[in-house]
Design a protein that fits this description.
Order of helices and strands: EHEEHEEEHHHEEEEEHEEHEEEEHH
Number of domains: 2
Structural class: alpha+beta
Low-confidence stretches: none
CATH architecture of the largest domain: Alpha-Beta Complex
Largest sheet: 8 strands, mixed
Oligomer: single chain
Amino acid sequence: MGDTRRAVTQVFLYGTLRHKGLLEIVLGHVPQDRLRACELEGYRVARAAGHDFPLILAQEGQRCEGLLLCDVTPQEQARLDYYELGFGYRLLPVVCEGQQTWVYFPEPDLWRAGEPWSLERWSETDWPVTQHSAREIMGLMGQVPPDELGRYFERIRARAYSRFLAETEPCPATVRAAHGQSDVTPLGGQLSHIGYFRTDTLRLRHLRYDGTQSAEMVREVFLSGDAALVLPYDPVRDRVLIVEQFRMGPWGRGDPLPWTLEPVAGRVDLGETPEAAARRECVEEAGLLLDRLEPVAGYYPSPGEVSTYFHTFIGLCDLPDSASGMGGLESEAEDIKSHVLSFEAAEALMKSGEINIGPLLHLLLWLKIERERLKQG
């Protein structure tokens, strides 16, 4: 890591930081009077192979486009350092236009260079999600050390993608009030926990139905990404596949039987549609290839405290006796057992209370209504 204690007078910004929207999030403002376009000789910018971020590399005869930020303030350097140094970059000096200039270079041999990096392509495909992850990262400044950011980055990206999906796939408001994000006034808050999930304690006011503002409220919110859930169903054999695994929630509640029966489920990965996530999870958890998906509903399982959003489906497929078995990814510490049951047997488990997971109850009840239609193809 570079020596960031040394005074930095000007910085050459390349790649994603040429995007004025991202630069504003990182710096907290855009210093137009101290920012201008320039080129750095002897370098090129490439895409990190398998990723969406840029790398700057020395190459004789090449020139890379960038922005020169002059008269860098200590606060601006601190914010740039936080955004860059925690993710495998280091601040090193170069000569640009005859003056010493600082550049955030990738750590040697950390990533492999791919094709040339394009700001236009990135702006179109990656910026809509990156803006949300960048806001979360900069919001953690002063709360999470920069050298710890990397361990949380995949979950930060998952939450960013969830925000993107919420913006691009809004639900209608025909009965409920069409109050929006602007009708909530944030008054501050703090990070309560960050790990595999994140919890914030927030102060806010919101618009009331009578047109007045609510009193100040203090609330905790559990932040997570979106998830896809699918109940595999064989309409020829009239069977479903249900998975069983250990769950922290029942265990934490003190349930004497913390292994639960559930639909196949998993998070929606960055850039993945909920439908694609449902198909992928069926392969990973149960070794199943689905014929087609029947969308059921999208909903918040516990909206008073959790940001998680469920995309639910019935997955039509073949379920022979051999579909029962063990599954899950070792890389995610999954230990999953699959049960193939007749619909009647699954319905009996609902009635007895052995099925006590809301999404599975919901999917089985939906299937009960639509079952005859699905049998007819």
